[in-house]
Design brief:
It contains 14 helices and 12 strands.
Length: 370
Amino acid sequence: MTKLLLFNTLLIPFLGFAQLQTIFQNKIDSIYEKNKDAIGIIVHIEAPQQNISWSYAKGVSDIKTNEPLNSEQPVLIASNTKPYVAAAILRLVEKGQISIDQPIKNLLSKKTRQLFLKKGYDLNAITVKHLLSHTSGIHDYVDDAYFGFVNQHPKYKWIKEEQIKRAIDNGETQKVGEKFSYGDINYLRLAEIIEQKTRQPFYTAIRDMLKYNELGLTKTWFIDLEKYPKQTLALAHQYSDKYNWDSYDINPSWDLYGGGGIASTAKESALFFQYLFDGKIIKNKKILNEMSSYVLPSDQSKYCLGIYHFDMGFNAYYHGGWWGTDVIYSPESEATITVFTLQKGFQHIINPFIGKEFQKSLMKKDIVKL
């Protein structure tokens, strides 16, 4: 879906966006009619160079009530939280409070440090960059057994110390810096570093360092850790068939403390990427460029520092979230598309919109036949 939306924006000079809006809506409507099990789809396109800021929703926000889905409804963005945490860490780097290659030993709390040292982790070898790039060698706490427990105890309120201990007890140490191994534990450690350096709760520090107020990000917050924003619609329900989950039935603490936890709208998720890569959050270009630079050879890992960098025929900066939340940014065309599907596992229906046409649509000057 994303690819075709951006491909179609090429016609803006010839058709005008009002006509293209109809084309976009019809395409999304058509996809939804063929995939109603997706429950709901929210799309936002943010393309300042084309004067586009457009949201659209199709489907329902709650299968029990069949309440129509509103494009301004927020959702849990899950692992799309990681770019926010990474950006906050890089703001600390920008301010000279930490360095990207600094060992984490003296950046963690004494209690956490002792737990990891007792397990045999070399905290002088693990750096901030290793955490950001999931190359730390720290075993994660999320596995099948973890999902099984959440499934059996959906209302259980996790605390981050339990998740840290579970990571330590869960497996053996791995070599540092040699392999990409995606793990929420890395971002729980980064959130702790933010707290240690700012002396604030990580969610408060992130809000301040990422300039939410200045940039008008009023509908982006850490669920249950911050107050529900005023004048914000109810969260849309999100679903997973595998576990028969409704997000409303699960205590969000299972995915809350830095690896996930943010709730936001499709528009504000896109705007965050725009502001970030436009240099409105991290102003030091060298540091910002590191965020999208490969840490391991690109044939081993496409993950950089809190962001994936894919070659789709153009540079694409991307992150996704467990519930079905995808955000993709093109630096060449300075455009972002957010796609939220309310049923986990239905991202494939929007894959045809993600590809080289994303870039072509905003860069080519010829007319494309739809």
